[in-house]
Amino acid sequence: MRRLFSLLTAAFLAFVLPAALAAPASASGIGARYERITGSGGVALTARVYTPASTGKHPLVVLPASWAVPTLEYEIPARKLAERGYVVVSYTARGFYTSGGQIEVGSANDVADARAVIDWALTNTPAAADQVGMAGISYGAGFSLLTAAADPRVKAVAALSTWADLEKSLGANDTWSSQGIALLGAAGKVTGRFGPELDAMLGNVLANEREPVRTWAAPRSPGRKLAQLNANKPAVLIANAWQDSLFPPDQTVELFTNLTGPKRLELAPGDHATPELLGLAGLPNDTWETTYRWLDHYLRGTDNGVDREAPVRLKPTIGGAAREFASWSALTASTSRRYLGDVNPLIGRTGDLGTTARTGWTHTANGGFDTVADSGTVMLTGGATQIGLPVAGWLPAVNRLNAGVWQTEPMARRTTVSGTPKLHVTVTPSAADTSLFAYLYDVDATGTGRLISHKPLTLLNRKAGAAQQVDLSLQPVLHDLDAGHRLVLAIDTKDQRYSSETGLGERLTFSSPASSPSYLDVPLG
């Protein structure tokens, strides 16, 4: 475990610190200074304050720093904002580096800290009380949304690589994101001081106790603050990565869909915080350019047209030019229901994904074995997708004794998969607790597959040997399947990214009863 912590911490620092330590951009006349701002309970927060060269009142942007990163992270974006006429206050969250207190992960104290920073700025800088915004990456993004739900003074938010539901982030479908939790825990231990609630939560993860984690996560989840967000109606920009291994996109899509105020959603290839990373170093970056335009319009009143653009802007899942949609639901024009068929020993024990129902068959997989089908290492494999190297595997090598595999016919023409694939399948576990992992691949004529979506699922306290009907929404996708390529669904019981309840010697049987045929609903654009 210590070796895993070291590997994941190194990966985290390799992605984040180069931008965080970038040399400050020069800006004539911009004032920049460090301050100690008193937060909730008297905790002192380390902050960096930027003021424009011009006199008079200015809109305010508060930038809470990311997890395990100091306020220096935003040096270049903060100066760019100050050049555009903003007062900017970036601060290191409680518990990290030279800020006081302990790490609390979006607690009431963290929200009170952000509100105290706003109070301080309105008193001690030329910031305008009716032009307050917040922006941030990851930890700072979550803080921004939580604060906007609590404080109606926040008129605009740019939430980059944000979380919406911490329970789904830590344990989607009752399956622990073990690598992600290890990465965050290791980075936090190196750079900060854990509070007792955070220590207890991590202890519950190690003890495989889910209910206390749910109780801890709920008030820290912006998606649980919809009523407050919709009452305050801040203008919310959400920009995340399709392959985000810490905060997968389905939760942010759900939050975006349910917001009723001004909103915009952008998704791009990459992993956690990687689409916006270059912007921290001052290099051209679509995410930060949208952020500047978003704040300019909703805080400064600039007529830059951002409010008239399509609210959903997506770059395809594993690469391609951005596409715009009038709403999230507009991604999907129709749905193709593909039924899981019996495995065929003549084609390597692979079943069809056909257009007519196939029932009465069974296929049993040995549990506890990993296969070629896998989601990859957190941060690394998703980050590689951003530079054109998606998670790939040779699908004929998936051991059919340890997995189920089903495929469509080769596509007659280019086909766009656009939306959320949904799996309905009957499984019979041999144990009370069982995990399974579903993967959707684009596979070419050579059998080489590129992963476009996946999702874990754990069944708890079920009757061993009893059939269970499973409905599983995979991660959303926007992907062009070339003519001659197939969609391939693979399901196994182990994945390096997650914890699995399926042990060696256990078995998982797939079936398709006549009363409820197994199928995959494929959304088409």
UniProtKB/TrEMBL annotation:
Signal sequence bounds: 1-22
Keyword Signal listed: yes
Pfam family, one: Peptidase_S15
InterPro entries from the UniProt entry: AB_hydrolase_fold, CocE/Ser_esterase, FrsA_esterase, Galactose-bd-like_sf, Xaa-Pro-like_dom, Xaa-Pro_dipept_C
Domain Xaa-Pro dipeptidyl-peptidase C-terminal per the UniProt entry, residue ranges: 292-520
Similarity field: Belongs to the AB hydrolase superfamily.
Entry protein name: CocE/NonD family hydrolase
Species, as recorded: Allokutzneria oryzae
